């Protein structure tokens, strides 16, 4: 076990990415079925609720108040997340759908509708020496608003795509699984916040374990229903290339527009890292509620691929920005 840990520590690939890949491989050969699948579905529901409870304990009200003052920053980030991304996703349809098929295109469009990430947006903004308080509030607001905006966007843009099923029950499920635990976490923060602050590894482990579990369950359903027979390696490679181009396009736009709007360097960095991200932690649970079980695997595949690409590119970019800032301070 120690040898395996040492190998993972020395690996150039993040252990989380390896875990997600492992979940897909295990689901392909050992998918969960029958009664075990039903039990695991309930485990996923509980895990998602627990995860968003932990998210609720993270954001300190003082940080929120400091960041809320900069409303132009937040409006700009939300516009990239919930306006620019969906427009680009729709514009890609005539070119992309014939290449990857309707189900994978539905997944590509869905990734354009989900909120921004919280952890990586804040972490990369910090590494790049950007506006950290603004990133905390914007990323958190994106996830909270996404509970409502993402289903509404799915209704508006995907009503005849991806076998989406949106009704009052779906909205209530999302509120119950995501928003309610988050609010409870906020209310419980004075009592449990210090504990989780001292044991940050608990939140990190819960975060990553939940995502890996959701990936395994989603892909298991796809295997059991035989949906993977409709996808080939060329389509997956095409999704990866399209995702790479989408990340690069959004990085260029989120770097250029803020400068034209008069934002300073710190704000531009926060906008760039929050405005280009798409949350796997929020998007996967939403997909399991919004889409039929037999198609969830294909729907979430583009989001999974996009997520890994954005982490790799933004990690490099944040490091570069951080070095530039250090050089400016030293000079």
What's this entry about, in short?
With 331 residues, the protein is mainly alpha-helical.
Q: At the third CATH level, what is the topology name? A: Na+/H+ antiporter like fold
What would you call the structural class?
A: mainly alpha
Count of helices? 15
Helix content: over 70%
Low-confidence stretches: none
Q: How many strands in all?
A: 0
Would you list the SSEs in sequence order as H and E? Answer: HHHHHHHHHHHHHHH
What proportion strand? Answer: under 5%
Q: Using the coordinates above, name the CATH class.
A: Mainly Alpha
Q: Give Rg in angstroms.
A: 19 Å
Mean pLDDT value = 81
CATH arch. level architecture: Up-down Bundle
Q: Report the biggest beta sheet as strand number plus sense, adding barrel if it closes.
A: none
**Integer count of domains:** 1
Ends distance: 47 Å
What general outline do the C-alpha atoms trace? globular
InterPro entries: Na+/solute_symporter_sf, Put_Na-Bile_cotransptr
Protein name: Membrane protein
GO cellular component, one term: plasma membrane
Keywords: Membrane, Transmembrane, Transmembrane helix
